[in-house]
From TrEMBL:
Protein name: EamA domain-containing protein
Keyword annotations: Membrane, Transmembrane, Transmembrane helix
UniProt topology in membrane: Multi-pass membrane protein
Subcellular locations according to the entry: Membrane
Length: 145
């Protein structure tokens, strides 16, 4: 949570306005920082035999494609949301994933993990609470504009 808060705060601090920033440059700096910080750990783990670097080329290609289309795209869209809506609204809106996953489970017919009434009721109340909170903070942000 600390690193997430630091990342969100630095994103808003170093990229104050949407039109004046280069998000590609910002993410390039984030990637460079990650590489500089994590590379010594990877090298030590590789030299001690703890980390195996024997990877099939197709597995590596699949991991790179997944990282590009999943992680980079989601980080870019989340950063745009932070710039357009603000860090609080973007972070609170991330909690909408929980009700959406519950709805996905219901529509796919895989919602059989709750068999008792009390857990099902608490799931429904929690889902509506999250949706209400996301709606309220977005309306407050909209009215503030």
């Amino acid at each position: 949570a600390f690193f997430y808060a630091a990342y969100t705060t630095s994103l808003r601090y170093f990229l104050p306005n949407d039109g004046e920033c280069s998000m590609a440059l910002f993410f390039g700096y984030v990637g460079l920082l990650n590489m500089l910080v994590l590379l010594p750990f990877i090298l030590v783990a590789s030299m001690t035999g703890y980390l195996s670097v024997d990877i099939h080329p197709y597995v590596l290609l699949g991991a790179l494609a997944k990282g590009l289309f999943d992680n980079v795209l989601s980080d870019y869209m989340w950063a745009r949301a932070v710039l357009l809506c603000g860090p609080t609204v973007a972070t609170v809106s991330l909690t909408a994933q929980v009700p959406l996953s519950v709805l996905g489970e219901i529509f796919l017919g895989k919602f059989h993990f709750i068999s008792d009434v009390l857990p099902a009721l608490s799931m429904v109340v929690g889902t509506f609470s999250i949706c209400g909170g996301v709606f309220a903070i977005n309306m407050l942000n909209y009215n503030a504009l």
